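chain below, 98 aa
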Amino acid sequence: MIRVVLPAHLRALAHVNGEVRLDVDGPATQRAVLDVLEARYPMLVGTMRDQSTKQRRPFVRFYACQEDLSHEPPDDPLPDAVAKGTEPYLVIGAMAGG
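prediction:
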């Protein structure tokens, strides 16, 4: 089971409280987690990734085990701690400005 922590505005959009728990078939990758998340909560489609290209939105960042995974290939395996559910996969809304 993968634990996913969404920012407040995406939790509100998906009507969830706290973290989301997902079962991912096959290897736990960023693409697999986001595919399952969007399938379970279709209202999130297009909020974290572009609908057609599946590229990460510019002001969204993905973290796991205190590492920024935002620029890592989406099919690379997630850290074991995330795959085992001991650490969450974090979706963060980045801030811009000065």
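The first strand starts at residue 2 and ends at 5. The first helix runs from residue 8 to 14.
thats it, cya
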